[in-house]
Amino acid sequence: MSTFALASAHAGVAPRCKKRVSATDRRASIGRSRARANAVAVDAAVDSRTQADFDALWAWLKAEGVDVGKVTPALVDDAPGGRGWGLVAAEDIGGGDAVLSIPKSVWMTVDTALESPVGPHVTDEAGWIALALQLLHERAVGPKSKWAAYVAALPTTLEAPLFWTAEEVGALAGTQLLDTAAGYDSYVRSTWTRLKDSVFDANPNVFPPDAFDEPSFLWAFGILRSRCQDPIDQGATIALVPGLDMVNHSGLSSQTWTLNNGGIASVFGGGGSGGGSVLLRTEKGAKGLLTAGAEVYMNYGPRKIDNQLALDHGFTDAFASRPGYVLGPIAIPESDLNCFDKMDVLEVGGLKEAPSFVLRAFEDPEPELRIFMRLLNLKGEDAFLLEAIFRAEAWGLISEPVSRLNEEEACGTMINGCEEALRGYTTRVEDDRKVAEDTSIGRRARLAARVSMGEKQALTDAMGYFSQIEARLDSMEYYQERRLRSLNLLDKDGNSTYDPFEDTMA
Fold it and tell me: Fewer beta carbons under 10 A from the terminal one: N or C of the chain?
């Protein structure tokens, strides 16, 4: 039976038909770096920002021509991570009305980074690195920066696991979130080390050591992950949008931001100054009405699961929980004799070389996962579907059961993988629930418990789904039966009427 590792989502894609780093290695990695993480870890409740900081931000936005009169910054009790800063309606706002429209002229983008003093030194770096270094530069120059008021209003403490203490991280033991955070931790720290050796040390006037040290670089990365208006994994298409990034998340809200005056290519990182703005509207209809004093929400990602929100923002949605588990990226093993043929079939199916799938609690897995499992386990007599004559239609052919053996192994791969992942947790669901509901415990520990409970639920549900399929193997119709039926070569009882001798004589 073919096997695979239930890997965490990670910043990067497994190479074509190459072996991936194991989850065990990732846990070891974060264990080695946690001692240094303590240097930047902070208490979750600390927030040094004041009303004066946000008054200055609003004054700057007004001076830049931004209409922010419909909303105002305020301390809110039900911010996702607990009491914190958000935006509330300064007046009644009707359904479908614009709440905020922030022009590109005040954004921080990859383009503004390349035009800044750090730009000449990062032309060959990833977009997020350039933007992170510009953010640190603007913070270092203080009042001289165009974005001084914005930077001063950014949080100095972050809630993502990247900034937890070693003890707090311990509560994540066994979870996918720990593995994923470990990947980020190792990646960001190694990136800082590389930049220090190749860029910072050679240009101390541009990159003063006290402003571009490791804790500062981690902070900038955390700011981008939590506040950029487009996912950081989209390369250059990221931006920090002052004002809009103060809107808190609610999974119950359908409010999202949209782009005006051009698409993403022209607005984000498209070269030149460009135009456009990012716009937030209320929901249409009666539910869209915001009364004065009500908090403004938006949805950070309608399909984001809890551990993804926890990874970037340090919270899960208490009112619209989405427990889940990210499966992948999964690469076709290099030991597979049909590796490259299978990669071609993946391309036909519109999937990446090493696709990822989201297992959602209380939902059936996405159909593509079942198809991928068939492809992963395709071998022996079934491998004829990988031949060139079938290549264009192979993905469609395996969208239905191929053979009893293939379907059994596809189900077994998932069931065994889920069982293996569940054995890696150090707590039971009952234990997680007690911690999650105990308000006397720190909120980071409660968050870890909610994430752990949700991951287990998603894995258990996926295992149950494939177990049900496994129980129906004998009643399924497989490829050869479908083919014979399409040729009218099956009788009313489902038996083949194909006579190879007669076919040969003809």
Answer: C
Domain locations in the chain as residue ranges: 51-304, 329-486
DSSP-assigned beta bridge partners for residue 103? 277
Q: Rounded CA gap, 431 and 417, in Å?
A: 23
What SS3 state is found at 232?
Answer: helix
| Residues 222/227/232/234 CA torsion (nearest 10 deg) | 180
CA gap 435, 444 in Å, rounded: 11
CB 417 within 8 A of CB 167: no
Classify domain 51-304 by CATH number: 3.90.1410.10
SS3 of the chain: helix, strand, coil, percent, to 5: 50, 10, 40
Q: If residue 429 lies in a helix (H) or strand (E), which one and from where to where?
A: helix 429-437
Three-class secondary structure assignment of 17-44: CCCCCCHHHHHHHHHHHHHHHCCCCCCC
Sequence-distant (≥ 6) Cβ neighbours of residue 366 within 8 angstroms: 357, 358
pLDDT at 263: 34
pLDDT score recorded for residue 281: 79
Closest CA to 208 of 109, 128, 133: 133
Q: Which of 150, 300, 325, 425 is catalytic?
A: 300
Phi first, then psi, for residue 298 (nearest 5°) are -145, 165
Question: Distance between CA atoms of 45 and 84, rounded to whole angstroms?
Answer: 9
Measured over the CA atoms of residue 132, residue 135, residue 139 and residue 144, the dihedral's sign is positive
Closest CA to 26 of 128, 175, 158, 226: 175
In this predicted model, what pLDDT tens digit does every residue of 166-201 receive, in sequence order? 999 999 998 999 999 999 999 999 999 999 999 999
CATH 3.30.1700.10 assigned to domain 329-486? The reply is no
pTM for this predicted structure: 0.81
Contact 334, 17 (CB under 8 A): yes
Cα separation, 384 vs 387, in Å, equals 5
323 touches 454 (CB < 8 A) = yes
Instruction: Give CA–CA dist 432/452, Å, rounded.
Output: 7
For 479-486, what is the mean pLDDT? Answer: 80
Single-letter amino acid code for the residue at 145: S
Please indicate whether residue 300 is annotated as part of the active site: yes
Sign of the C-alpha dihedral, residues 121, 127, 129, 134? positive
Cα separation of 25 and 354, whole Å?
19
- pLDDT value at 117 more than 70: yes
Amino acid at 195: L
Q: What is the DSSP string of 265-279?
A: HHHSS-SSS---EEE
Residue type, 356: S
Give helix 339-348 / helix 367-376 axis angle, nearest 10°. 160
- Segment 29-33 shows an average pLDDT of 40
